[in-house]
Design a protein that fits this description.
The complex is a heterodimer of chains A (317) and B (591). Chain A has helices at 2-27, 32-37, 43-53, 59-71, 87-122, 127-141, 144-163, 180-211, 214-221, 226-237, 239-255, 258-263, 269-278, 282-310, 312-316. Chain A has 317 residues and is mostly helical. Chain A has two domains: 2-71, no CATH class; 90-316, Orthogonal Bundle (MetI-like fold). In chain A, helix 5 packs parallel to helix 14 (282-310). Chain B contains 17 helices and 22 strands. Chain B starts with a helix and ends in a 7-residue tail after the last strand. Chain B is an alpha+beta fold. Helices cover 29% and strands 16% of the residues of chain B. In chain B, the strands form six sheets. A six-stranded mixed beta sheet of chain B has the order 15-19-14-18-16-17. In chain B, strands 1, 8, 9, 10 and 11 form a five-stranded mixed beta sheet that branches. A four-stranded antiparallel beta sheet of chain B has the order 4-5-7-6, covered by helices on one side. Classes of the chains: A mainly alpha (317), B alpha+beta (591). At the A-B interface, helix 2, helix 3, helix 7 and helix 13 of A face helix 4, helix 7 and helix 14 of B.
């Protein structure tokens, strides 16, 4: 198993080096210094800035330097847009607010969607299945912006206006568990509502496929009850696609949910990256992009490892 | 025992009673917030809003006066101009002192001195600070440009930028008085002294906090800001400066101010509020709902919510909001929104009658009213020339004696024929450069449709804003969409956009060169406000309308709503240090 993990890690090293190389090239296609300094900057300012930022050195030297920084987790490059703050400061400050909405949203979405998927598969072809799938299609057909706008209006503003009380704030973020439900629960519920449509349909398809397999027939023939068939036999064998689906969402989990963070004033990773892009904050964009790429690759490796754990045939192949 | 209980009760209650008395305001900042609270690094309106809470300039705008006028802030009186017309004499106000901070001996803020003024301005010359607004001082103060070049060269060569080196035009006379000698008479100089980038900072704080200085402000302003009270991307909280120098609510006001009671607090000591809590909003919907819920003092009305606040036709506040005690204000902005031509382009540029006729034909084909109605709810102001409403040089009722404002398709076709392109025959497709941001694409489509009516075809080249700026500053854009917001309320600022030596990459993006115009511009730069100067402004305005290096013009109007609990808020976008005048009436808050 350890050899398998090591092999997967080694395979991905050149992939990551390539991603960083092309990412750094892409970020330099349009001169980031002119873009940041703007029209009133002089040539001398440009040169002083380039020297300070290390962008006057040859590209390969910048590449080597950045790789060294990544290898040592040194993200001390100063933000251009927020002088006095390093990319690391911004990264660390944004992680918790992002996770405060994405982790609960992922857990809730997965649990509810798997449960509904199981139920739909169990009652497949009957009105329960149809009703659930119509609801899922409806849910996924509505834009996330509609959920946000209506959620903020009715969930936070309207309730307060008409009943003098609402469990949610319109927008904002306060750290700490005590204020989590006030500021984060509404975006979490909206995220769940948005993601459930897709996930429910996916899990139902997986479960329906499993329903027709021989081992299910065998289990039923041996007298296993519906609960045991569903939750022990079927769920266990459906783990590979379930893991894939959950793992695919992990990098986005860390990346935050940009729309939620922007509309609910949550100072998370997605919003931070968006702000950095708009403000032409080159060091922050570079570090954040490299981090997301690393997370994506690590997630892929982790997915492979989980596959190997759940299905030993993967390891052998 | 009873006495003890009373004492304990008093002690327990004391903080909460004090808290009840605090005047706390909640205000929005319609962006992700400021980037740095270091005056020399700021350039946006949001930087300005944050900087003005903690730092101060030598002069400020009179809060209630319209049109804008200046008054002393950190000075005991307005600067006196010597007979040579070049030397200004300043006297610092007594009692103006920096906030208490560990950067000072004993943690106690000290009095402001002339050396602080010179140091703060020299920071603008230091390229190491990445100053965004050096152009404010460029070619203005005797010896300052030379000082800047020499020091930056020394710094680039591995030496240090020497803040102690003298500048010919800076002379300290004593602890409170100093003189500044200009290279040549420059009228805008006093306006510059009210701009936040020229605010005064203490050297001790800059040196102690280094790169953190932009997050750890130490100024003389009405409010103080602790580092931990600024959460980037979320909020910023400022507290009353207990040692703020003597400043009072203005006694002079405009007649229309009485309707809103702006005149009532005359003579009150500033700042009035104890704390201001700013929340940053990137999206308008949560800001709009927070305002409706009574949690924000005021709001700039977003375009998509305009009809929920004002009658689209009359632009009057809706009765339902009036009933709730909400006040509405319209603030015309100092905007110059236009379509520009590159005067060096072989097709569209040039000064011969045929070349002028082609540009004039394009101007006459454009329908600015349609654009205003379609994209701005019809609330913008359309006018002739480059000088926005409210400033000298703006034509009466917006209509100049010389005008090529459309739509006048018949005249446009005549001019096009005069240019040698009857019905547009023989005229190549014109590349039109515009920003893709906001509704740039839709506006380009409307422009295409309007111009095709006279036979002029355009190819819209839409890009992000930085690419557009690059194309314009490198003179690649022959026909482009752009806008200019006045840096200070003087028509001279807009007329400078056509001054030959300011050609791209300077602010003259039209690359307009007219020797007669340039001579007049040099003349107005040195003239104090007078009827003669206004006449020259008008003459210059008519010259550029006739030569048509641009088609235009339009200025935005911003609409504000103010909740009944926020007092003394007279909206303006000319300056940002108005929060010290604000008050709160908690009895009028929504429960």
């Amino acid at each position: 198993m350890w050899f398998y993990i090591l092999r997967r890690l080694l395979y991905n090293v050149p992939v990551y080096l390539g991603i960083i190389f092309f990412m750094m090239l892409a970020l330099r296609v349009n001169d980031p210094i002119w873009a940041f300094l703007g029209k009133n900057a002089s040539r001398e300012q440009y040169e002083a800035f380039a020297a300070k930022a290390g962008l006057d050195r040859p590209f390969l030297s910048q590449y080597a330097r950045f790789l060294a920084d990544l290898a040592t987790l040194n993200f001390s490059a100063e933000s251009w847009d927020q002088p006095g703050k390093s990319a690391r400061d911004l990264l660390l400050a944004a992680i918790v607010p992002s996770l405060a909405i994405t982790i609960p949203a992922l857990i809730l979405t997965s649990l509810v969607s798997i449960a509904i998927g199981l139920a739909a598969a169990h009652f497949r072809g009957r009105w329960v299945d149809r009703a659930l799938m119509i609801a899922a299609v409806l849910g996924m057909s509505i834009s996330v912006l509609v959920y946000i706008v209506l959620g903020q209006y009715f969930g936070a503003f309207w309730l307060k206006k008409h009943f003098g009380w609402s469990p949610f704030e319109i927008a904002g973020y306060e750290p700490g568990l005590s204020s989590w439900s006030t500021y984060c629960l509404l975006p979490v519920l909206i995220s769940v509502a948005v993601a459930m449509g897709y996930d429910t349909r996916f899990y139902r398809a997986v479960m329906v496929e499993e329903c027709g397999r021989d081992y299910i027939t065998t289990a039923r023939a041996k007298g296993a009850g519906a609960g045991k068939v569903l939750f022990v036999h079927m769920l266990k064998n459906a783990m590979i696609p379930i893991i894939t689906n959950i793992m695919i969402t992990l990098p986005f989990l860390i990346g935050g949910e940009i729309l939620m963070e922007v509309y609910f004033n949550i100072p998370g990773m997605g919003r931070r990256l968006l702000t950095a892009i708009v403000a032409k904050d080159f060091p922050v964009v570079q570090v954040f992009t490299a981090m997301f790429a690393a997370l994506f690759i690590l997630t892929n490796i982790l997915t492979d490892i989980l596959y190997a754990i759940f299905d030993p045939r993967v390891r052998l192949s | 025992m009873k006495l003890l209980i009373v004492l304990v009760t008093c002690l327990v209650m004391a903080p909460s009673l004090a808290a009840v008395d605090l005047k706390v305001l909640q205000l929005p900042i319609r962006s992700d917030g400021p980037k740095s609270i270091d005056p020399v690094k700021g350039s946006t309106v949001y930087d300005n809003e944050a900087v003005c809470q903690v730092y101060e300039t030598l002069l400020q705008y009179k809060y209630l006066a319209r049109p804008p006028a200046l008054e002393p802030l950190l000075l005991s009186g307005m600067p006196e101009l010597a007979a040579d017309g070049l030397t200004y004499r300043f006297q610092l106000k007594k009692g103006g002192r920096f906030h208490d901070d560990p950067c000072f001996p004993g943690g106690q803020g000290r009095e402001l001195a002339p050396a602080d003024v010179f140091y703060s301005w020299k920071r603008m010359a230091d390229n190491g600070n990445l100053p965004k607004s050096w152009w404010l001082f460029e070619d203005t103060i005797a010896g300052f440009d030379e000082y800047r070049d020499a020091q930056n060269q020394a710094a680039a060569g591995g030496g240090k930028f020497d803040y102690g080196a003298p500048v010919k035009g800076f002379r300290a006379l004593n602890d409170r008085e100093f003189e500044v000698e200009l290279k040549r008479p420059v009228q805008r100089f006093l306006w510059i002294l009210a701009m936040f980038q020229t605010a005064i900072v203490p050297r001790e704080a800059v040196e102690k906090y280094g790169p953190r200085f932009g997050r750890h402000p130490v100024g003389t302003g009405p409010f103080t800001l602790k580092e931990e009270d600024w959460v980037p991307g979320k909020s910023l909280v400022v507290n009353r400066n207990p040692h703020y120098h003597e400043c009072f609510y203005p006694k002079e006001h405009m007649p229309e101010d009485e309707e809103f009671g702006f005149h009532l607090p005359a003579g009150a000591r500033l700042p009035i509020a104890d704390r201001i809590e700013y929340t940053f909003f990137v999206q308008d919907q949560p800001m709009w709902l927070q305002f409706q819920a009574g949690k924000l003092g005021y709001i700039q009305v977003p375009a998509e919510y305009f009809s929920q606040a004002f009658n689209k036709r009359t632009r009057k506040l809706l009765p339902a909001l009036k009933k709730e005690g909400i006040a509405g204000h319209a603030v015309p902005l100092l905007d110059f929104i236009f379509r520009g031509f590159n005067m060096e382009d072989p097709l569209l540029g040039g000064y011969t009658p045929e070349k002028k006729s082609l540009r004039q034909a394009i101007c006459l084909a454009l329908d600015w009213e349609e654009q205003n109605d379609s994209f701005y709810n019809g609330i913008n102001i359309i006018y002739d020339g480059p000088v926005p409403p409210g400033l000298e040089g703006h034509p009466r009722d917006g209509k100049g004696p010389v005008s090529y404002r459309g739509p006048d398709l018949e005249r446009a076709r005549q001019f096009l024929a005069k240019a040698g392109y009857p019905e547009g025959k023989g005229l190549p497709v014109i590349d039109y450069y515009s920003s893709l941001e906001a509704n740039g694409k839709e506006q380009a489509e409307m422009l295409t449709r309007q111009l095709v009516k006279i036979g002029v075809r355009i190819n819209a080249r839409l890009s992000d804003f930085s690419t557009l700026i690059e194309a314009i500053t490198k003179k690649k854009a022959l026909f482009f969409s752009f806008a200019w917001s006045s840096d200070y309320p003087d028509g001279e600022n807009n007329l400078a956009l056509f001054y030959g030596p300011n050609e791209s990459p300077g602010s003259n993006h039209f690359n307009y060169k007219n020797p007669e115009y340039d001579l007049l511009y040099k003349k107005i730069q040195t003239m104090p406000p007078s009827e003669e100067r206004t006449r020259l402004y008008e003459k210059m305005r008519d010259m550029v309308i006739e030569d048509a290096p641009f088609a235009g013009s339009m200025a935005r109007t911003r609409f504000y709503l103010v909740n009944p609990w926020l007092k003394n808020f007279k909206p303006t976008e000319d300056f940002s240090n108005w929060s010290k005048y604000l008050d709160v009436d908690d009895s009028k808050r929504k429960r």
